[in-house]
Specification:
Chain A is an alpha+beta fold and 453 residues long. In chain A, 54% of the residues lie in helices and 18% in strands. Chain B is 39% helix and 22% strand. Chain B has helices spanning 10-22, 33-42, 59-68, 86-93, 105-116, 153-164, 172-180, 190-202; strands spanning 2-6, 26-30, 47-51, 75-79, 97-100, 127-130, 133-136, 141-144, 147-149, 169-171, 211-214, 218-221.
Chain lengths: 453, 223
């Protein structure tokens, strides 16, 4: 299907137009130049012929001159040369010109005004004629213009055939390349259309062998689509999780309220339980919103130097009695010298608290939990490690998902948002949260970016 | 206690007003920022409750305007759920405390009481006393009925906070903020375990309990 909107076809037509304009200019130039050169050449020839004839006349007289003129007229080819020798009284003495109509005797004379002995060549449309005096005789000489016509014809034919060839080949290549390109652009726009219609898994087919601009564009579109698909998937996942995780407490709350409304007297215990359930729902919402807001990153404006060791000591002090009551040992290894990072102290304390709470919640009694701030190379590292059951390697990434709970920990409470929040806070501080095997147990580390000293 | 409530949501305002009335407080309600500003200048209040999102004049600007009009009445700022920078913004604007919606009235009430009777800064305050319990702020010592009691630094801070707010209810969140600088809610019973340890030291060997649990609200220290 040919459409003028197509870039490649439009380009080849533009080139064809440019070529024809250029050809026309070349043609006019060549015409003018050849005409000029050929005329000069023919003129020179006639001048030299005249000189020869003058010599013959001076040496041998009029009869030899007349004979020579006749010979010259006879040997010319297809009457391209015409000659006439006239006496002083105007009588024709020699030559092949019978008659010239009109009064012009020099310059360009149209072929139909000249009657000659024999036939014209059809290609001769006129003659350049000169007139010379030899003694008392007059010599008319003419040369047909067909040489020029031949030259121009050859020139014209080559230019026109070149034009046709370029037009033909150009449009063919243009259309061919255009069709190839169009197929690929069609593939891109088709894919985008599918994505717009909701098929997020659609990808542009890429020929691995080629590495041209379209392949690169297709590659980056594909990776954008990949990212988009992941984002949408996680959004869907989160919405489902929220729906699922909030439906259960809301359902229980509803049942309790229904039971309460059917009674005449409200039992305070019932009301209190209902309040507690409301509190749970609100807490989950708050945690989700907090994660979302931390992820939005506007908190960075308030970053200030924060002493990790001091913050960790505060968190240790807060949780130590609870850990002790729960039969776990929580101890802290303070850094040798103060370690500071640029950050939000409130959020850093929440990060530490969540790391500790995670360890407290998911380990059995008798577990030892260690909190530490240290330098690894030039990175400040915050570590909470325990010697509990740990997490199998394949589950370690999953724990950062919102609402994720390992099979064993389903019953151990928590809203499944603790480590998601840790990850959000770590990312806000450009820190990397790493889970590893503490052999035995779990080791959670937050690697902060190197601090300028 | 005279309270000004600037809150545009009628249901929330009714809830706060009726709860305050039950406690015997006097209140005035303004439904938008401009009316709130006029009321704040017009009469004397012990404390003001100002919502963050208000028609007319937003809460933040209202607090700034009130402060620039040289009104020093304590202000508690109410924020819609979650605004993570709201606390700092609110305090920078001149508010004295901050509470996130949705909140329990007991929390608001405890904070209002704490703010309204906040003692003027006493430079020479060196000792706190409640019944036979004495706390020396300079020497960091605790003595009950003449018996010295050894407490951890954090327990000391907790005790001082409770004693400064004696006779009033102190909520769990107020303690988390005031004693540990925790502006989030740990899932672990941090406050409960510390209170129980402090009780073991302060109250256990005495007949008269000084630290009381207020069910559904928090704690209160009184003789």
């Amino acid at each position: 299907m040919l459409r003028l909107g197509r870039t490649s076809l439009r380009l080849s037509l533009q080139f064809a137009f440019l070529y024809s304009v250029l050809s026309a200019v070349i043609f006019v130039g060549a015409y003018w130049f050849s005409n000029y050169e050929v005329r000069n050449w023919l003129h020179d020839q006639m001048v030299s012929d005249t000189e020869i004839l003058i010599e013959i006349f001076q040496e041998n007289g009029i009869e030899d001159l007349a004979k020579s003129v006749d010979v010259m007229a006879a040997v010319n080819f297809e009457n391209a040369r015409i000659l006439q020798l006239m006496g002083p009284d105007g009588t024709v003495l020699a030559g092949n010109i019978e008659r010239i109509v009109g009064s012009e005797r020099t310059g360009y004379i149209s072929a139909d005004k000249v009657t000659i002995d024999g036939d014209h060549d059809d290609e001769i449309s006129g003659y350049w004629v000169t007139q010379n005096q030899i003694g008392q005789y007059v010599l008319l000489q003419g040369t047909g213009n067909h040489v020029i016509a031949e030259v121009l014809e050859a020139l014209g034919i080559s230019l026109i055939s070149g034009f046709i060839l370029i037009m033909g080949l150009g449009s063919f290549v243009g259309v061919w390349v255009g069709r190839l390109t169009e197929q690929r652009i069609e593939a891109i726009s088709g894919t985008m259309k599918k994505v717009a219609e909701g098929q997020l898994a659609a990808r542009i087919p890429i020929d691995e062998a080629s590495n041209d601009d379209l392949s690169r564009v297709s590659g980056s579109i594909n990776s954008t689509l990949e990212q988009l698909e992941n984002l949408v998937e996680s959004q869907v996942q989160i919405s489902n999780d929220i729906a699922h995780d909030l439906r259960t407490p809301l359902q229980r709350l509803r049942q309790r309220l229904e039971k309460m409304s059917s009674r005449d007297v409200v039992v305070p215990d019932d009301a209190r339980a209902a309040l507690e359930q409301t509190e749970d729902v609100i807490n989950t919402f708050n945690a989700l919103l907090r994660i979302a807001q931390i992820e939005a990153g506007d908190r960075r404006e308030r970053f200030q130097p924060a002493d990790l060791g001091a913050l960790l000591a505060n968190v240790h002090e807060a949780f130590e009695p609870s850990a002790d009551d729960g039969g776990r040992t929580l101890f802290i290894t303070p850094p040798e010298k103060p370690i500071s990072v640029l950050g939000d102290p409130d959020l850093l304390m929440q990060l530490m608290s969540n790391m500790v709470e995670n360890a407290l919640r998911h380990t059995p009694e008798g577990t030892t939990i260690e909190m530490q701030v240290s330098h690894v190379e030039d990175h400040p590292v915050l570590t909470v490690s325990d010697n509990g059951p740990g997490i199998v390697a394949e589950d370690r990434e999953k724990v950062f998902r919102r609402f994720y709970r390992g099979e064993k920990s389903r019953t151990s409470g928590g809203n499944g948002l603790g480590l998601s929040l840790c990850k959000a806070i770590a990312e806000l501080h450009n820190a990397e949260l790493v889970l590893s095997d503490n052999a035995p147990g779990l080791r959670v580390e937050a690697h902060f970016p190197p601090t300028a000293k | 206690m005279r309270v000004l409530i600037v809150e545009d949501d009628q249901e929330t305002a009714d809830y706060i007003c009726s709860s305050l009335r039950e406690l015997g407080h006097v209140f005035e309600h303004a439904a938008d920022g401009k009316a709130g500003f006029l009321s704040a200048l017009d009469s004397d209040f012990d404390v003001m409750v100002i919502d963050r999102m208000l028609p007319g004049l937003d809460g933040l600007s209202l607090v700034k305007s009130i402060r620039s009009a040289d009104v020093a009445t304590p202000i508690i700022f109410l924020s819609a759920m979650g605004g993570i920078n709201d606390r700092v913004d609110g305090l920078e604007a001149g508010a004295d405390d901050y509470l996130v919606k949705p909140f329990a009235f007991s929390e608001l009430s405890a904070r209002l009481t704490a703010l309204a009777r906040r003692p003027p800064m006493q430079a020479e305050e060196t000792k706190l006393q409640l019944a036979d319990l004495e706390v020396d702020l300079i020497k960091h010592t605790v003595v009950r009925a003449g018996e010295p009691i050894a407490v951890q630094p954090r327990e000391f801070r907790l005790l001082v906070y409770l004693m400064r707010n004696a006779e009033r209810v102190v909520t769990r969140t107020m303690l988390l903020e005031g004693v540990w600088d925790f502006h989030f809610d740990p899932k672990t019973n941090v406050v409960e375990t510390h209170i129980s340890r402090l009780r073991n030291k302060i109250d256990k060997s005495f007949d008269r309990q000084l630290i009381h649990t207020v069910r559904g609200s928090g704690y209160s220290m009184h003789a």
